[in-house]
Model the fold of this input.
Amino acid sequence: MMFGVSYSQWMFILTGAGWTLILSVLGFLGGTVVGLPVAIGRASKSRFPRFLTAAYVKLIQGIPLPVVMFIVYFGISIAGYELPALVAAGIAMTLYSSAFLGEIWRGCIEAIPPTQWEASECLALNKVQTLAHVVLPQAFRIAIPPTVGFLVQIVKNTSYAVVIGFFDLTYSARVINNSTFKPFVVFTVAALIYFAMCYPLSILSYRLERRLKRHSR
Amino acid sequence: MDYGFDFSFIGEFWPSLLEGLWVSTRMAAVSLTGGFILGVLLAVARSQDSGLIRRLAGGFVDLTRNTPLIVQTFWLFFGLSALEIRVPAFYAAVIALAINTSGYTCEIVRAGMDSVHHGQKEAAACLGLSKARILRHVVLPQAIEKMYPSLISQFVLMMLATSIMSEISVEELTAIGYQIQSQTFRGFEAYLVIAAIYLAMSWLLRVVMTLCYNVAFPKQRHIDQARSAGSRQARDKALSGTAMNGAKS
Done:
């Protein structure tokens, strides 16, 4: 017993924290795979991919994440599949983080001066080569601090998966609160665990940003 | 996949959809106002010379920004009821949202104020303007111009975040979606409709905030226009210049 919450109940909360981490990693990996083409499309000079990706980003950013979770969850179930909540939550987190990462990375791609494109055109590189060898490596460096900063949002927003009953840190804390009714103890600990996951990332992102600023001066 | 889409529930549920929309709108409006005021106060506190006040405000901002809104809400809502303080869920939700958004607003306001070059303040002081006038006529107009886009995004995000409050049984829009789902078993369609309403709301909020900006800062709008026209002219000039050079050679 610790603060009126038993050892096994604390272990239950820690298990939830583990699932929060797993969902965060899934959300980030999915967000990277889908978000990179979105960013390239958003920064493209031709109109069609720009319009398509802009519509995608506007759509996802205009809908609350819990509602995205519900749509994916019920969408999967009407397609006739019985999949665990982790899959629905993972897809929803992928949609969410790809839209935001796409916007962040677009800014990084557009921050590369147009003279770089022109110079590689002079070297007779085609568009794909320019992107792969000239623009993206430079954009990558600028992209690291805001991407690390966005990881905080991903970890925090996995908590919205409780709406579809995904067993994460928030969900397990609520279950333990329901049985012990020690809200201050339980949710303070839950908040501290989230804080322990997010705060180092925040600090890291801030430091990287400062270092980048110093370098570019 | 054989699935017949059926949106017929709208006929029966539109009054409760409207009611949920009204609750969501009210919740967003109150918490945005409260969060904005709290955020500006925090930004002022973080720019104080006194180390204690600065550190307290900084710690508060770090705490609110690095823990999820829903955990903050549960902490407040269940915590208050454990203390046997009866607060309607709506007000608990508003307080949680305001506290959550104040941390972000504080950082946005601070970044906006920092972006004004200190030479501007010194120049204004040389002209004999008082501190209040420097703030009103020199710092704020430039700071607001810089922070306005981030403020709009933050406000839209916060409006969308009201959707989680169905978890503490506030009867807002998302809660209505759940109600429709449990009565008609049309969860997918119900949440598609809800999503469309949120989409319209975020679009409307953006439009209204941009209009407000144009009305509140008519001068700023002209400056912006002149600037973009100026850069366009400069670009045209540069282009025609290269064209002429080409013709010469």
About this structure: Chain A touches chain B through 42 residues (CB under 8 Å). The first helix of chain A runs from residue 7 to 42. The radius of gyration of chain A is 21 Å.
